[in-house]
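can u pls check wat happens w/ iron/sulfur cluster
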Amino acid sequence: MTVTENPPTPRSPGRTPPAARAARKPRGEGQWAVGHREPLNPNERMKKDDGGLNVRHRVETIYAHRGFASIDPQDLRGRLRWWGLYTQRKPGIDGGRTAVLEPHELEDEYFMLRVRIDGGQLSVAQLRTIASISRRFGRDTADITDRQNIQLHWVRIEDVPTIWQELEAVGLSTTEACGDTPRVILGSAVAGVAEAEVIDPTEAIDEINERFIGDPSLANLPRKFKSSISWLPDTPYESNDIALLGVIHPDHGPGFDLWVGGGLSTNPRLAERLGAWVPLHEVAEVWLGVVQIFRDYGYRRLRNRARLKFLMADWGPEKFRQILETEYLKRPLIDGPAPELPERPIDHVGVHKQWDGKFYVGAAPIAGRVSGTLLDSIAAHAEAAGSDRVRLTPYQKFIVCDVDHDRVETLVRALRSEDLEVTPSAWRRGTMACTGIEFCKLAIVETKARAAELITHLESRLADFDVDISIHLNGCPNACARTQVADIGLKGQLVPGPEGELVEGFQIHLGGGLGLAAGQTAGFGRKVRGLKTTAAELPSYVERIARRYLAERTSRD
Ligand code: SF4
């Protein structure tokens, strides 16, 4: 039918033509709970066609035998993430080509493999297993990530089933380490050992893991879902989709304060308190309710609006709590007080006393970069110090727990001999870096090596800098290393070089830091128009910022 065959109906006064009404009708956000079941973008179609968890069988029965070329493209760039696998960037492709090349042109025939370590808790045997896998199957690569995972690189699909078997034999996995799933749960790296801890929530983290991780009914979320459960506020709780933080209720005693809807990336938003107090035995149930809300009401139409923070921005904490109580928990939550929040992030570097009289020792590799060989050494040093517990922190550091006082010094010296500093400079202590262009397909700039150069420069020029400072290097706007909540947040991008040509560089965010909800610090860093540096000039740029800070501090005193 053509337009001329069906002339427009004459418009009666005050009435809107049906076609115009249809044009104005909201398209919906792809929320399942309001009937939008039809996939609205290719990612949603892929997940509907076949669940991400189902790819494991194909890896074990087909891909590991027939090799990289046999992998279905939808599995390769989609479902394998449900098992912690991403293809890694082909070496030698500069950041200027990241946005213009097709995915298959950017990717190598190797994988990045993320080992899920909920709460960052590892035994010596588990650490040795990861170390051995790294050496045999990952070219001895390993990074401690800012989500308490360990990431390996150069993994071949042929080796993946063996890696899974070896990890699972010691109680580790890569299940839902990536993908649109409930990812690794952050926890206090000193849970169960800290003097200041009132309740150790590890049992709640374990319960969630056992009951819900790998559950197909929670494995098709609109996007990733990040959790933090800790008594101490020593995780970046505010940047998680859900956070439960320790608090003492005046009538009910110790429990957890519930926060929802945080996330950084390109539209950063801090989590908000729902004003609810949750006892330890209800943590898993409340966590489940929040994940189910995300699954059912989360926006699925546009990937860049699919995180829970966008739903929270529209609903607000009161409505979120009401839906949680009425539709999911079927009961009201108990109102609760706000927890005390720290002025600065707590990274546990150094030597600290445990509640039982022993000590834990926190050390700083450079921007989380270690290796399988180094992880093996850490395991050996921990064992020699009488410890069977090693913890990873969300600041790319690690901790050896349960050390007797008379073994602390020997352990500190042993770690130092591996360049793992227990008393690092402020620069080393406060610097984190994401994966960057070395392995990440989305990267525009290099980060890990730059972080090392930056630390070396600042340690030589400002060795006595005596202020806690956080410097977070990110290879692109995705902010995996939390650009916006650092004192100096660095967002990788191309910037004009000395001759006007585009070169690797960073946009600078100044003055971030956690604790916003308590009104204690500034929150997101200020992104000032024009505040950029080339990567080559970064060390001297940061040095100038630090010197200006010191000069202004002195003039204020
Ligand atoms: Fe990759 Fe960008 Fe995330 Fe860095 S911030 S790991 S470059 S996606």
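The radius of gyration is 25 Å.
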